[in-house]
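Quick question, first post here. What does this chain look like in 3D?
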Amino acid sequence: MTDNRQASVFGRRREPHTVIIARGDQIRHFTIRPWMAALAGSVVAAAAVGYLLATSYLVLRDDLIGAAAARQARMQQAYEDRISMLRAQVDRITSRQMLDQHLVESKVTELLERQAQLTQRHGRISPILDRIGDAKLPNSAPVPAGKPDRQARLGSAATAYASVTGGTEPAPFSSAFWETRHGHSGGESAADQADRLFMTINQSLQDIEEEQIARLDMLAEDAFEKTGRIVEALEEAGLQVDIDEGGQDTGGPLLPVQPLNFDMRVRELDQALSKLETVTEMTKALPIHNPAPGRSVSSTFGIRRDPLIGAPAMHAGMDFRATTGTPVLAAGAGKVIRAGWNGGYGRMVEVEHGDGFTTRYAHMSRIGVKAGESVSTGDVLGKVGSTGRSTGPHLHYEVRRNGEPLDPVRFLKAGRTVKKLMQP
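> Answer (accepted):
Ran it through. Tokens below.
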């Protein structure tokens, strides 16, 4: 019954409220409709809410302003810290670039100086190389490397650097080098790569220098050895060779206090070549060369049976079997002191070589020099014949010292040794 009653109530239309005000004889009434009551309630509620909000704002305004200011300050500080960090990073990169640039420039300068030093060394070695060619050192002694091509070496170094650092132009000679050399990956900085490359190039130049010095040492050693062997061969033949340069007679193994430098190596090689050249010039004057090369010996030095009378006799020289007209060569440089007929020698030429040594060439069919004429080793003195006391065409050859005959075989043996040593 309750539900039915409420439903019936809710289903009816509500009437507006009337407010009656009586004052004395005056009576006033107002009609308040439902929507007006709702509007008035809403206005009151809005005013109350506004009042509460305004009061809360006035109370909390300082806190809200302080919080906003603090938040803004924190954001500004964070931005300033970030800017400072980026600026410091830029400064570090710039400083590192300047340091790397200075380092690379110093290393390039060092490499150029070493390159110039190698070029200068080649200029000093070139005349010595010409002397080595004249001295005909053995092939076992390699000649120092030729003049380094500066542009080629620098170009190869620049190309290698560009390949390591990834540059598009040969570094460190390009303008784009300093702009691109820091853009690398792989965990290794461009400076480290440059260091590694410069160490490689520097080691290569050092290897060239060491090889150059080693070759100079080898050439000097070969020159000293050849000089010693030539002197030894000449002394065995009884020829004294004086190559003293004015110093005291000293010797012994080389025990340097400190490593010898390039200049000392060059001086040592120059001294060795000077001695070798001195000995070589001496050998040109000594009577140690074959006057009839390629011809067999028909009679040696010493006592033999005389071919004409058959009795033992002293043979003061040696005979070379040769046909008439075969050239007779000077066994050493000297001066012709006799050229003409000389008894049993027939047509004979005698050459003075100095230090009491003379050589005689006898039984010639024709003489091609005159007395007082200077001759060199290998010059043609005349032609083989059979003049004088001879049984057939041959060359009679004598070596004398102070007029005493010596066995020519030992001189020819020394000459063969020297000739072998002088071959390249």
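Residues 6-10, 137-151, 160-186 have pLDDT under 50 and may be disordered.
The helical segments are 2-11, 34-135, 150-165, 177-180, 190-236, 262-285, 408-422.
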